[in-house]
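pasting for ref
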Amino acid sequence: HVGVASKAPQPSSSREAVILLVDAQPMIHKVVGSILAARPEWTLHACATAAEAVPMAERLRPDVVLLDVMLPDGSGMDVLPRLASHPDLPGTQVVMLSSDDLPEHKAAAFEAGAFDYMVKMPAPAEFLVRVQHAVRQAEMMQIQVRLLDQAESASREAAMQLRFREEAERLLQEKGEELDRLNRQLQSAHALPLEALDRIGQALKGLDDTDTLLRRLLGEARAMFSCEAGTIFLVQDGALVFAYAQNDVLNVETRFPYHL
């Protein structure tokens, strides 16, 4: 796998954006709409109450919320922190609209998470530029969120691959140990018959009597395989015939008639 480093995306100077205006004054709606008409790639939505603001923002996922401080059913300052900290609106920028220019009100707005604070209504050119700055900030925040999501996804994938590799290595080690154990058992199983056969060969050397030879051979073979009973067959006239039998359970040792 060959990775190619890519340049981080940069905010565009002209992009589609969603603007939500929360203000109860129809005249403000009209003025804002006429100013933002200079940016046809932007879409303006509007509502008039604090109760509508958050649900509408959740549905639209706006880039910028223009939020009036004085609303008929409450204060925009109460709505501001809910928008600024909303987990589903990580890139949304809130611009407060107010009729006063008090420094303490501005400070409170910025502390609560506002991106900007405008006294209604600035000159159209200033208003447009300040909204544009908020749109660019929203795009930068959205890019950062996407990059963080990609980094977290890559980190989770890397962690998963590491777990898979560790599990594969563990299984390989277990299989290797099992193969080693089986190999030792196989070597031991092979060694035992070879040793027993060598012992039998040594014991049978010099035995001339056939009966004694068969009896000793059967006894050693039974001992080698831990058998309680055993029988030796001989090929006689093209057929198998009983030659010698031993049975420890019945305490029997029998020689059958045969000729060589």
